[in-house]
Amino acid sequence: MRSILITGCNRGLGLGLVKHLVQLSTPPENIFATCRDTSKATELKELAEKSGKIHIIEIDLTNTSNYQKIVNIVKEKVGSAGLNVLFNNAGISQKFSRLSMVKEENLTNTFLINTVAPIMLSKALLPLLKIASKNNEADNDMSINRAAIINMSSILGSITQNDQGGFYSYRCSKAALNAATKAMSIDLKDDGILVVCLHPGWVRTDMGGNNAPMDIDTSVSSILNVMKTLSTKNTGTFLQYDGTTLPW
User: Fold this and answer.
1) What cellular component terms from Gene Ontology apply here (predicted)?
2) Least buried of 8, 56, 70, 221, by fewest C-beta within 10 Å?
3) pTM for this predicted structure
C-alpha cells in the first residue's frame, strides 16, 4: 500500500502501528497519523522527525465537522493516487460496570468516538479511497494495496461471546461499529473497497490495562500480517488479530 491513515496514534496500538509500518523494508510512502494533542505525542513526533513518510494530523475526532481538515491534508500529499487504507483505531473504553452504574454521559461519549467518528471519517475520506481503488482496479481482488477500511473493534462487541455482562458503553459501541462495518462492506463492494473489523486481542495498553497477556508489538505484528492476506472473501467479516473469524 502506498498510503495509510491511522487514527489515535499518540500511544498504544496506534503508535505501535506507525512504528512497525515505518520499519518495513518497503514502508508506505505516506503514513498519516492523527492525535488529539501533539504536545502529548512525544514519541510520535520523534518518529516523524526521523522519517519523512509520517505526517501528524492534530485533531479532536469528536469534532466531526472538522474532518475536512484531514481530507485536505491527505489529498495534498497523495494527489491523484488516492488513499489506500483508512485504519479507524482511535477509541475509548469505560471501566467494567453493571447496569445500575451506567451513566448516560458515558454512553453518548463512548458512542461518539467509537462508532460515530469512524463512520463519519470513512464517509469524509471515501472519495480518496475510491480514487485509490479505481487506480488499482486491474487487480480485481480487494486488498489493502487497492483500497480498504479497517475498523478496530473488540471481542467485547461480540453479542454471541458475551457471557459476563457489564461494559455497556464499550460493548454497545463496538457492536454498533461491527454493524457499520458490515453495512459499509456491502455499500462499497462495487467500488472495490475492502472493509473489515479487527479485534487486536487483550493488549497491555492504557485501555487494556497492565494485566493484559499480550504486548503491543505482538498484537501489531499479527494485525499487519493479517492485513497483508485480506482479500475479497474477507470483506464484511469480524476477525481476530491472528486471522480467526469471530462470531457477531
Assistant:
1) cytoplasm
2) 221
3) 0.96
CA–CA dist 117, 208 (Å, integer):
21
Q: How far apart are the first and last CA of the chain?
A: 29
Residue reference for cell 454521559 = 105
CA–CA distance, 11 with 44 (Å, rounded to integer): 8
Q: Which residues contact 34 (CB under 8 A, 6 or more apart)?
A: 5, 6, 7, 8, 9, 56, 57, 58, 59, 61, 70, 90
Cα–Cα distances in angstroms (integers) from residue 179 to residues 2, 70, 134, 151, 175, in the given order: 28, 25, 26, 11, 6
**Could you tell me if 94 and 170 are in contact, meaning their C-beta atoms sit under 8 angstroms apart?**
yes
pLDDT of residue 107 exceeding 70: yes
- CA distance readout (Å), 22 to 50, 96, 139: 10, 35, 25
Could you tell me if 147 and 130 are in contact, meaning their C-beta atoms sit under 8 angstroms apart? yes
